Automatic annotation (TrEMBL), chain B:
Record's protein name: tRNA-splicing endonuclease subunit Sen54 N-terminal domain-containing protein
Composition bias, Basic residues: 522-531
Pfam families with a match to the protein in the record: tRNA_int_end_N2
Region (Disordered): 220-246, 275-307, 480-537
Species assigned in the record: Scylla paramamosain (Mud crab)
A single GO BP: tRNA-type intron splice site recognition and cleavage
Family per record: Belongs to the SEN54 family.
Compositionally biased region (Basic and acidic residues): 287-296, 480-489, 497-513
Chain intervals with Polar residues compositional bias: 276-285
InterPro entries: tRNA_splic_suSen54, tRNA_splic_suSen54_N
Length: 338, 709
């Protein structure tokens, strides 16, 4: 927590010099489950760990249990960018895994464990339901008592009227002898266990018996192409500087750069990674387009490329509306610009 | 340039609000979020993945409201307050994520995953049934993406061999590959926002003309037709209904259903996993599918208990008992002296494959399918043919006639049969697209391409547009084949395509297979082109079918032809493209000499029929079948009414881009003009887990303003 604070506050002043201090005092590694070539996080604790301590954001792609039919807030799993997965592996924060039995037919032991767990869950529910019912009865006891008394009175009245027309109110009141405890006892005697078909069943997001499966290390080849290597280098560099990064496809870039946690802050830069050759070949049209998009979304457009030493160089472009010709000004070529 | 394809992003914002119970102005929310503390539920997990019973019961009464996502801050100040805000938002989000998905047991629909048919069979359908799933011969089934989505939303429990699947497992078991995963993401993205997403229904095309006269509301009911998923027992259940009505419409409808079925059942890459125990056959699903088709046809004529394939297989195993348990067997040819007198082996050894048999059973029931070009691919055999072409051959050649094979079946020694089988196997290899078992792979691919190409590229192709959607059977067949190739054999396609024109059938190869029985499509078209090739020389004059006596007549006839062409291929073609067409054909309009009709044709040509104005025919054949983009889903917007039994025309059609490769302009043009009903084509691109949607719609640029002067 402390380290995170410091990185955040120092981001703007001394971006490059701030070390990649990640508060991962825990030694446990995040398990990135690889499915069809994509890295996923299925455990909410891992997600928490990534968000809080690793400055990894990812992208939620599942449904929210509370409200499945909307797309504003999504739920587990968390899909990671390929760069994030590679970085996690390289920094020793996580590992890519695959589960051997995942795609096979379940073994008998798995099935047994599952039904056993579900059975236990049911038993717990029976107990819990009984407890809840008792609490409910206790809470409502006074009301029940009051109701019963009224009923009793009416009945007595009718009876008395039948027997003799005279009113003997006082004695009737005394005849009603039920107490609160009696009512509770009576209700508890009626209590029945939760029927089988009314039990609550969980629909699992994460595999419930993951610890029973054989975990295999899964090779993670990313980055393979030249473009991917540039992208990964840029991602690494920015991450080490203490920024939060997400996919930039929304704004036509490779990454979006956030100064703080994307849960609170807007991104402030759009990064596009290019190779040095592409940079020299021009592409003014693209550049103007990208800068205009960035300007209208109040962001900075940044071109990132590798120089001859393999260091990442950033060029940021601003588009000034005041100037007649849409001219890009090479503001600064330093990392501090960000 | 008359057409511009505009690419613009689709925003279905209205839909995304769907289902939010609490939609308030975001600013109404107190900014001082940090003040309220969030309680993290204590995790008393008895087993790691299981939530305890107490917890589940407590969750039952949880607050179901979801606060709208709060505003973000532009500038990071790093103040204490901001820290607290971040903290609280993270906590809040975590609590939301931690909640389990629950359902009461008696209210939770259940299904079972069937790996062999790649579907989820519902044992207890739920509310979702009215816009999801499909009725099949084995009961109500869901497509994989539908099932995964329902697991994700906690509305369905899918059991795989007795164990309920979690979403994590379902994504790796039910979804086949990365592209399928992308398709699922698109599906879930659209469905979450309230759209109804169904597999593409190729039969739902109504031209503007058909809609105007309300023909779309009177489509034939498809209630009797069920999707065949292929368990043997099931294929016999509706024999009676089928044999009762052998008319073509039912068949055509079934063919369309097959097309709808798409990749779920016709998935050539997925081997049948539970290799049928001791049975020798390990077949691909696609072949199974074809086989099924054949059963369907076979059972119409005769109520036999065993499928033709099964009979053949038993026969073969009787002959070669050693073959039980294996798929392919090699048999060496004995010394020449030991062979029967009329047998000429063309190879030293033959392979017998079960798969070939399967094709064979298809072949038999379909009667005649000749692919002329595959035989000359087998170079070994060609050599031996040249050597052994002697007098004896003629007699043998007559015997090895495909059609008479059955008559003389028993008079053959089994070497011949074996040889036949080898031939058949060659056929099956060109037929089947899923496996290349042998090294001369490019060869058979060429042949497969070749045959279908020639069919599509027929110069006299005046078949109507609808033909491509299942009117003619072989057309559908080869199209399916090409589509599955399209999906699964990407890298090979270039090679096959470039070779296509170079390999024309050589005359001497014709001897190998008897072509006295032409496949139907060849019988129809082949002779004419042949005749043109041989008997006539190229002429600059347009050949007319009618007899003319003077230049004037000739010119008139030419003008008629031009007018007809213009009517049939210009903007007016929409009139004749649908199932229902005007009583007058283009030819009739253009040929009648009376002035009123001539003016009709000119009127027709002048009015705007809201169709693509370019000559689509011209480039339709330029894009090879396998390079065309495949329409995957039909989408109905949340506001649209949708009935599964009688679906209306969709609001959008979705294409999912594969591997991030952008479509070429040609592909886009082909896609936008493939359907004549003006339904918007939406292209879905999945990148880093985010779904972006783009529409392709033709627009006409507004004419420039005329200056006042």
């Amino acid at each position: 927590m402390e380290a995170q604070n410091s990185t955040k506050s120092t981001t703007r002043e001394e971006g490059p010099s701030s070390p990649s201090k990640v508060a991962c005092t825990e030694t446990r590694k995040v398990q990135v489950a690889v499915n069809h070539g994509q890295g996923y996080i299925w455990d909410v604790r891992d997600v928490w760990h990534l968000w809080r301590n690793c400055r990894m954001v990812g992208c939620l792609v599942g449904s929210l249990p509370r409200h499945p039919h909307q797309s504003c807030t999504l739920g587990l799993p968390l899909r990671l960018l390929p760069e994030e997965v590679t970085l996690l592996v390289e920094e020793g924060l996580g590992e890519t895994v695959r589960y051997k039995e995942m795609e096979e037919k379940p073994s008998q032991t798995l099935k047994d464990t599952f039904s056993e767990c579900r059975e236990r869950c049911y038993k717990e529910q029976v107990q819990e339901a009984a407890i809840q019912r008792r609490e409910q009865v206790k809470r409502m006891a006074d009301k029940i008592l009051e109701g019963k008394r009224k009923k009793f009175l009416i009945k007595q009245k009718e009876k008395n009227e039948e027997v003799n027309g005279s009113e003997t109110n006082g004695s009737v009141e005394e005849e009603f002898t039920l107490t609160r405890e009696d009512v509770i006892q009576e209700e508890e005697a009626k209590l029945q266990p939760l029927p089988q078909h009314l039990q609550i069943v969980e629909v699992f997001t994460r595999h419930p018996l993951l610890d029973q499966l054989t975990t295999e290390r899964c090779p993670w080849p990313y980055p393979t192409t030249q473009e991917e290597r540039v992208r990964y280098k840029v991602f690494c560099d920015l991450w080490h500087q203490g920024h939060y990064l997400t996919s930039g496809i929304k704004f036509g870039g490779n990454f979006l750069v956030y100064a703080g946690d994307p849960h609170l802050y807007h991104a402030h830069a759009i990064v596009r990674c290019v190779r040095e050759q592409q940079l020299r070949q021009g592409g003014e049209v693209d550049l103007v387009a990208a800068t205009r998009v960035a300007a209208s979304t109040k962001k900075t457009f940044v071109l990132a490329s590798l120089d001859n030493d393999g260091q990442v160089r950033y060029r940021s472009y601003h588009w000034f509306e005041e100037v007649e010709e849409e001219e890009e000004e090479n503001m600064d070529e330093n990392d501090e610009e960000l | 340039m008359k057409i511009m394809i505009a690419v613009r992003e689709v925003l279905w914002e209205a839909g995304s609000k769907h289902g939010l119970s609490c939609v308030g102005a975001p600013s109404a929310r107190p900014k001082l979020m940090y003040a309220h503390s969030v309680v993290i539920p204590v995790q008393n997990m008895s087993h790691v993945g299981f939530t305890s019973g107490e917890e589940l019961l407590r969750v039952r009464n949880r607050d179901q409201t979801l606060l709208p996502s709060s505003e973000k801050v532009d500038e990071a100040m790093g103040s204490w307050m901001e820290e607290k805000m971040v903290e609280s938002r993270l906590q809040e989000h975590r609590t939301l994520l931690e909640e389990p998905k629950i359902a009461r047991k008696d209210q939770l629909p259940t299904g079972e995953w069937l790996p062999e048919s790649q579907m989820v069979k519902l044992t207890r359908p739920g509310k979702f049934w009215h816009h999801m799933g499909v009725e099949t011969d084995i009961g109500k089934c869901l497509y994989p993406e539908e099932a995964v989505y329902l697991i994700d939303t906690g509305e369905l429990e899918v059991v795989y061999d007795g164990l309920p699947l979690s979403l994590q497992q379902a994504q790796s078991v039910l979804l086949q590959d990365a592209h399928h995963l992308d398709q699922y993401l698109v599906y879930s993205h659209l469905t979450r926002t309230g759209c109804k997403v169904v597999r593409h229904q190729p039969h739902l095309i109504f031209t503007k003309y058909e809609k105007d006269i309300r023909l779309d509301q009177h489509q034939a009911s498809r209630k009797g037709t069920k999707l065949k998923l292929g368990s043997n027992k099931a294929s016999h259940t509706d024999d009676s209904s089928q044999s009762a009505s052998q008319c073509k419409p039912v068949d055509a409808a079934l063919e369309e259903l097959y097309a709808c079925l798409g990749d779920a059942a016709v998935n050539p890459l997925t081997l049948e996993k539970n290799g049928a125990g001791s049975s020798v056959s390990t077949v691909t699903n696609s072949s199974k599918d074809k086989e099924k088709e054949s059963w369907k046809k076979a059972s119409q004529s005769s109520q036999e208990i065993l499928s033709p394939h099964e009979i053949k297989r038993r026969e073969l195993i009787e002959m070669f008992p050693t073959m039980a348990g294996s798929e392919i067997m090699c048999v060496d040819v004995e010394h020449v002296d030991l062979l029967p007198s009329n047998s000429i082996p063309s190879k030293k050894s033959y392979r017998i494959s079960i798969e070939a048999l399967e094709y064979y059973s298809v072949y038999e029931t379909r009667h005649h399918y000749h692919y002329e070009s595959q035989s000359h691919k087998n170079r070994n055999r060609k050599e031996s043919w040249n050597h052994s072409r002697d007098a004896r051959w003629d007699s043998y050649g007559r015997h090895s006639n495909w059609q008479s094979r059955d008559d003389s079946y028993h008079s053959y020694g089994y070497r011949e049969r074996e040889r036949d089988r080898d031939n058949r196997w060659q056929h099956s290899r060109s037929q089947r697209d899923s496996y290349a078992w042998r090294e001369d792979r490019s060869g058979w691919q060429d042949s497969a391409n070749d045959s279908s190409w020639r069919h599509y590229n027929d110069p006299d192709c005046d078949t109507r547009f609808r033909d491509r959607f299942g009117d003619s059977e072989h057309d559908r067949w080869s199209r399916d084949r090409m589509e599955s190739r399209d999906r699964y054999s990407g890298p090979d396609y270039d090679m096959g395509f470039s070779d296509r024109h170079s390999d024309s059938p050589q005359p001497q190869d014709r001897d190998q297979i008897d072509y006295s029985m032409w496949p139907e499509w060849k019988r129809k078209r082949r002779p004419r082109s042949r005749q043109q090739g041989r008997d006539s020389y190229p002429s600059f004059m347009v050949k007319l079918r009618t007899r003319v006596t003077s230049w004037k007549e000739y010119k008139n006839a030419l003008a008629e032809m031009d007018a007809k062409k213009q009517l049939a291929r210009g903007s007016t073609r929409v009139l004749w493209e649908g199932r229902t067409t005007p009583l007058l054909t283009p030819a009739a309009i253009s040929s009648s000499a009376s002035s009123s009709i001539t003016s009709l044709s000119s009127t027709l040509l002048s009015c705007n029929l809201n169709a693509a104005i370019t000559d689509v025919e011209a480039f339709r054949n330029l894009i090879p079948q396998e390079a065309r983009m495949k329409v995957l889903y039909d989408v109905y917007l949340p506001t649209a009414t949708y009935k599964k039994s009688n679906p209306p025309s969709p609001n959008k059609r979705i294409v999912v881009i594969r591997d991030g490769s952008m479509p070429t302009p040609g592909q886009i043009l082909e896609l936008t003009s493939r359907f004549v009903d003006g339904v918007v084509m939406v292209c879905a691109v999945v990148k880093d887990g985010e779904v972006r949607l783009y529409t392709f719609s033709p627009i006409t640029l507004p004419p420039p303003l005329q200056s006042a002067s």
